[in-house]
Design goal:
With 493 residues, this protein is α+β, with helices and mostly antiparallel strands. 31% of the residues lie in helices and 25% in strands.
Length: 493
């Protein structure tokens, strides 16, 4: 039988130990949770998040909207403003797959990425055989390439343009303009001219996304931090073996931020930064508001007019000018796109200089429909929803070297815009809810419970000690007998 002293000692020791553990847990449970979170987020070939990062198993769609110029003849003959008709969306489901991965000793991973697109007719508002009239991009690209060449080359170019019957506007199908591409005599001539002059056109056909579908090389080679130091998780160190591009002047040419698929955890209400290979620059997106998806809270970051603002409004943008600064709301992509006079803006030229918007008829900017935003779960840094929207515009302007372009008006003509959408699923949201909400709650509740249990055991032990000490102590010798018992005993004797 266990003695009362042993019970006292057991309660006091177990209570003290449990209370101590509980108090330590209450004090350090946040640090413990941070350690667990950091370990789970660290990307390795056998980590929990590896397969998620490798395949990105969430619904991704690319929605293309084409700008059809309905009065192209009048634009050329009488300098009329281009009247635009928006066609689409032409919706493609999109898949990502990381390939050719090398895990480096400096806690980075080097990899390539394969993107595949599949047309979704049931989600689309147009057919891929729709005809679209837009500027002749190969013509404008070739005109830009010969600008600094000698008179003989320019003469031969004009003869070629005249011989093949090139026009300022062309009519092609949406299918040809998006992925399939179309043959153009000027591209064929450029393939020959690259041996005669110092020019290089990497395509034999033209389409905005030509040769990208299923390619493992188009997006380039990435070198990304795996998050052994969690504040660096997802950070892009190099793209195509460099940490800077030739598209812009320093420091605007630096490759900063993530690829947009991973962000460091414990986000603040300041900004997120990602690098876009399509436009050769980093995008710093400021905090907008709180939001939630399937009960999982997040921070929405949304681009504003400062991203593509003129240097007079945003002095940090001076190094994006690439020579002459474009109007507000436009980003000069000439050096990013092989010399093609392309300019990026938000769709419908949202936030652009009103004078530029007024050069065409038909654009109707709407901040809700045309902004660029990304929602992130702040504790883990996992993207919850993405609406990446950009528009490609071409600059049509007089060119004295090209007969066909000598008398045109100066117009920034929209070509197409796209919306890349990513949305977390309920199942994935539930998984991250366990990490972001359930696990810290369990650790907190467990710590408090341990402390309370330890306190209760300790109090019970102290009460037991007090109760035992309050009982009267027994005297030495035999116990006293009552009078009747004593008298009986005397009679017997």
């Amino acid at each position: 039988m266990v003695s009362s002293a042993a019970c006292q000692r057991g309660l006091l020791v177990s209570g003290a130990v449990t209370l101590l553990v509980g108090v330590v847990a209450v004090t350090l449970h946040q640090r413990l949770y941070d350690s667990i979170l950091d370990k789970r987020l660290h990307l390795t070939p056998d980590s929990e998040g590896y397969e998620f990062w490798r395949t990105l198993p969430v619904p991704i769609f690319m929605k293309f909207y084409m700008w059809n110029v309905t009065n192209s003849a009048e634009v050329v003959s009488s300098h009329a403003r281009p009247v635009l008709e928006q066609l689409g969306p032409y919706v493609y489901s999109e898949k990502h797959l990381k390939v050719n991965m090398t895990w480096n000793a400096n806690n980075t991973v080097t990899y390539q990425q394969v993107k595949t697109w599949h047309f979704e007719p049931d989600l689309s508002a147009g057919r891929l055989d729709d005809n679209v009239t837009s500027l002749n991009v190969p013509l404008l690209a070739a005109a830009a390439l010969i600008k600094d060449m000698n008179l003989l080359v320019k003469f031969m170019f004009n003869e070629l343009v005249n011989q093949v019957g090139s026009q300022i506007f062309v009519t092609k199908t949406a299918r040809e303009l998006l992925f399939d591409g179309y043959d153009d005599p000027l591209l064929e001539a450029a393939a020959v001219a690259k041996y005669l002059a110092n020019i290089s056109i990497p395509f034999d056909r033209f389409a905005w996304f030509y040769s990208r579908n299923g390619s493992n090389y188009y997006d380039g080679v990435f070198n990304m931090d795996t998050g052994a130091e969690v504040t660096q998780l997802g950070r892009l160190h190099y793209w195509n073996t460099t940490n800077a591009t030739a598209a812009f002047q320093p420091p605007c040419n630096m490759i900063n931020g993530s690829t947009g698929e991973l962000f460091p955890p414990r986000r603040r209400r300041d900004h997120v930064e990602l690098y876009s290979t399509d436009i050769c620059r980093s995008l710093r997106i400021p905090y907008k508001e709180e939001m939630s998806v399937y009960g999982l809270g997040g921070y929405r970051y949304q681009a504003d007019e400062m991203l593509f603002a003129a240097p007079q409004t945003n002095p940090d943008n001076w190094c994006f000018c690439t020579g002459d600064c474009p109007p507000a709301g436009l980003l000069n992509e000439t050096l990013c796109r092989f010399g093609v006079p392309a300019f990026v803006s938000f769709p419908h030229m949202l936030y652009a200089d009103p004078a530029v918007l007024d050069q065409t008829v038909g654009q109707e900017p709407n901040e809700t429909l045309h902004n660029f935003n990304i929602a992130v779960e702040p504790l883990t840094g996992v993207p919850l929803a993405v609406r990446a929207r950009l528009q490609i515009n071409m600059l049509l302007r007089p060119d004295t070297d090209v007969v066909l372009l000598r008398n045109v008006s100066t117009v920034y003509v929209p070509m197409l815009w796209f919306e890349n959408t990513v949305d977390v699923t309920p199942a994935i949201a539930a998984r991250f809810s366990v990490i972001a909400r359930v696990l810290p709650a369990v650790l907190s509740a467990g710590s408090v419970t341990l402390a309370a249990l330890g306190g209760a055991l300790l109090v019970a032990g102290l009460l037991l000690v007090g109760a035992l000490r309050s009982r009267p102590a027994p005297t030495d010798g035999e116990p006293l007998l009552d009078d009747s018992t004593a008298d009986g005993a005397a009679g017997e004797r």
